[in-house]
Amino acid sequence: PRAVHRPLPHRARGPAAPPPPAMPEEKKAVAAGATKKKVKATKKKTPSRLYAKGTILGYKRSKSNCYATCTLVQIDGVRTKEDAEWYFGKRIAYIYRAKKEIKGTKFRVMWG
User: Fold this and answer.
1) Of 73, 70, 95, 94, which Cα lies nearest the Cα of 84?
2) Helix (H, G, I), strand (E, B) or coil at 93
3) Which of 23, 35, 49, 75 shows its CA 20 to 30 Å from the CA of 62?
4) Measured between alpha carbons, how far is 75 from 53 in angstroms, rounded to an integer?
5) Which of 88, 53, 100 is nearest to 74 (CA)?
6) Phi, psi (degrees; rounded to nearest 5) at 6
7) What is the C-alpha separation between 13 and 107, in angstroms, rounded?
8) Whether 74 contacts 58, CB under 8 Å
9) What does the pLDDT look like over 24-80, one tens digit per residue?
10) What is 36-92 written as a DSSP string?
């Protein structure tokens, strides 16, 4: 097995370095701005998709053996092993539509 580098716990790293001293102009700006609050302009974020669609192909299998604990998934847009490496270890949500509505939706999800 490869050796994995893990950082030391926070307490074992030693004392934190003190912040650099503030310049006289910064002290004046901080003192003057202590009474006023700055209002930041909020940017509208565009929605980003945090999932990739795919198809469940079935179990990993050979001619005579079937491995029910290993599912084969074909992810849209992934054609090479290098592309697939990013998805290794990620979870899968199997989403399906049922007839009966529960909690205001007919969609159900099974995580795996």
Assistant:
1) 73
2) strand
3) 75
4) 6
5) 53
6) -120, 135
7) 48
8) no
9) 665 565 555 555 566 666 777 787 778 888 988 898 999 898 888 888 889 999 999
10) S-PPPPPPPPPP------EEEEEEEE-SS-EEEEEEEEEETT--SHHHHGGGTT---
Choose between 92 and 7: higher pLDDT.
92
C-alpha–C-alpha distance, residues 80 and 82, integer Å: 5
- Region of 83 on the Ramachandran plot (φ > 0 left; ψ -120 to 50 alpha; else beta): alpha
Beta strand pairing call for 93-102 and 105-111: antiparallel
Tokens, residue 99: 């007839």
The amino acid occupying position 68 is A
CB neighbour list of residue 28: distance below 8 Å, 6 or more residues apart: none
Residue 28: both structure tokens together: 């004046």
Q: Quote the distance between the C-alpha of residue 32 and its chain's center.
A: 41
